Amino acid sequence: MEKEDEKKGAGYFFDFSEVWGYYFRKKDPNRKPNLNLRMMHGINKIAIVMFLGALIYMIYLYVFVY
Hints:
Number of helices: 4
Order of helices and strands: HHHH
Radius of gyration: 18 Å
Largest sheet: none
């Protein structure tokens, strides 16, 4: 219960290790290639990049335009 009550620092919110692991992981040689799974992961990667780009653009507008 104490762990849940701890305050999380800024480093917790800016920890992108899972994102980097998703983009730059090694291929599993034991896994059979599946076209549907590859397409799904490709679309997910595109969606993440577009979301981060839009987020950066919105922050830019908020900081420099308004």
